[in-house]
Amino acid sequence: MSSDPRHILLMDGPDSTGLIHSVTGVLAHHHLNIIRNDEYVSPDRQFFMRTEFEGQYESAALMEELEKTLPAGIHLRINPKKKKNIVVFVTKEHHCLAELLIRYAFNELDADILAVFSNYNTLQPLVSKFGIPFHFISHEHKSREEHEEALLRTLSIYEPEYLVLAKYMRVLTPEFVRHFPNRIINIHHSFLPAFVGANPYRQAYDRGVKIIGATAHFVNNDLDEGPIIAQSIKDVDHRHTAADMATEGKDVEKIVLSQALKLVFNDRVFIHHNRTIIL
After folding, report:
1. Which three-class secondary structure string do you get for the chain?
2. Which residues are the active-site residues?
3. What is the largest CA-CA distance in the chain?
4. Which long-range contacts (CB under 8 A, 24 or more apart) does 36-40 make?
5. What is the pLDDT along the chain (279 residues), one digit of tens a residue?
6. Domains of the chain
7. How far apart are CA 60 and CA 63, in angstroms?
8. C-alpha torsion 140→143→146→152, nearest 10
9. Which of 240, 260, 274, 279 could be bridged to 50 by S-S, CB 3.0 to 4.6 A?
10. Which pTM value belongs to this model?
């Protein structure tokens, strides 16, 4: 196995002839070895490509040659293949957080959990077992804006690449979301776009559904309507109460969140309008 560092080149923009050839030619010119290449052209003729390569290179020289070779309108970025730095937000439910903590402890998360934030101290004993800082920042007797200002002050210590809402049961304001564009990932206990908002399992039970599900998505300024990253479902029937559905749903939620994070942390997700392209 090569000891050369690995990198991921992400590219998107208007489709045109020869884009793949242009990129691979420049990488070859810099003696870089392509490990994997995935591409997609959308119906509206937008081109997306993820190229994983290895080798040593001079960043400015490589980017300059790529930009000269490619047509205008192409967006390029090169990320080192490394773990992402994240902060996890929780309220009182433990199942998604516990799944992330176990995966982190066994090096299966593709991320470093810098801290856990909560508006309750319920889950502090769990987090302390993993030696991760826990910040209890209460929302009581504060306006939503005051609470979020307190969150942002403490977040500035960590400068995370992503925020993960692992059953964080508060709606974030547009002002807060603005600080982390396409960098907040939420798990919703429903198969979106069905049953948005509160009490989705009661909504599902009342409708007599035969499947329940979970959706991981990026957070934007529309409640539960950000670009969807991953979803899954589980069969239920008339014997299931709303409480039964909620219990079954927890298993789906924690797996879907983990799947979505793996995709995002491995730089496999592009956002195009309000949809994701996953390569």
Report:
1. CCCCCEEEEEEEEECCCCHHHHHHHHHHHCCCEEEEEEEEECCCCEEEEEEEEECCCCHHHHHHHHHHHCCCCCEEEEEECCCEEEEEEECCCCHHHHHHHHHHHCCCCCEEEEEEEECCCCCHHHHHCCCCCEEECCCCCCCHHHHHHHHHHHHHHHCCCEEEECCCCCCCCHHHHHCCCCCEEEEECCCCCCCCCCCHHHHHHHHCCCEEEEEEEECCCCCCCCCEEEEEEEECCCCCCHHHHHHHHHHHHHHHHHHHHHHHHCCCEEEECCEEEEC
2. 224
3. 64
4. 38/279, 39/279, 40/277, 40/279
5. 567 899 999 999 999 999 999 999 999 999 999 999 999 999 999 999 999 999 999 999 999 999 999 999 999 999 999 999 999 999 999 999 999 999 999 999 999 999 999 999 999 999 999 999 999 999 999 999 999 999 999 999 999 999 999 999 999 999 999 999 999 999 987 765 566 666 777 777 787 878 888 999 999 887 678 999 999 988 888 888 888 888 888 999 999 999 999 999 999 999 998 999 999
6. 6-80 (3.30.70.260), 84-278 (3.40.50.170)
7. 5
8. 80
9. 279
10. 0.91
Residue in the structure block whose two tokens are 């927890």: 250
Two tokens at 138?
């209460």
